[in-house]
């Protein structure tokens, strides 16, 4: 049965697939709870904590530099999808519009629906991270986090908050939803950081 949806990586692919992962043929949806529906008129992204508080509207985001990304996607439940094509805004481009206190060393992602997940500032500010609003040249479907999600390709995908609406900058580490429920604080797939000790 499982073979219908997953396959073992070919040798070309296998160098890109972290240990314990199988390739998914489709693009599964993995959500805890309901998919929130947010109209673009009502949509907001706020920053607070150790940053000058600011609220971004959809048009603020659309005025920011737009980039294309290709990234592999690794879910801790053992599926990976290679070469996902996204369009959005680089985190480092977005952060040019945010005034962060240098004491901020951690970030809590907040999402519509109440989901949270934590990343260190170092993991958050990587050049390959982005906020996505299109996937495979289509508007990001609500189930995959539309209108906007974060994508942090070098960590397990639970760190890629769907329907992101807040970034809280912190001078200490706090744990998000899955991290409070036994998952690893960082979640690096090549080191198989799945669960906390
Ligand atoms: N807001 C929110 N973001 C979330 C989740 C969630 O339940 N809620 N699930 C996470 C998990 S465990 C994974 S694997 C990916 C799945 O993204 P996808 O549904 O687009 O495949 O989103 C992550 N981001
Ligand atoms: Mo996941």
UniProtKB/TrEMBL annotation:
Gene3D superfamilies referenced in this protein's UniProt entry, alphabetically: Oxidoreductase, molybdopterin-binding domain
Tree of life domain: Bacteria
CDD domains attached to this UniProt entry: arch_bact_SO_family_Moco
Domain Oxidoreductase molybdopterin-binding: 33-178
Entry EC no(s): 1.-.-.-
Region of interest (Disordered), residue spans: 1-22
MF terms (GO), sorted A to Z: oxidoreductase activity
InterPro entries (UniProt xref): OxRdtase_Mopterin-bd_dom (IPR000572), OxRdtase_Mopterin-bd_sf (IPR036374)
EC class of the enzyme, as a word: oxidoreductase
Keywords linked to the UniProt accession: Oxidoreductase
Protein's recorded name: Uncharacterized oxidoreductase YuiH
Name of the encoding gene: yuiH
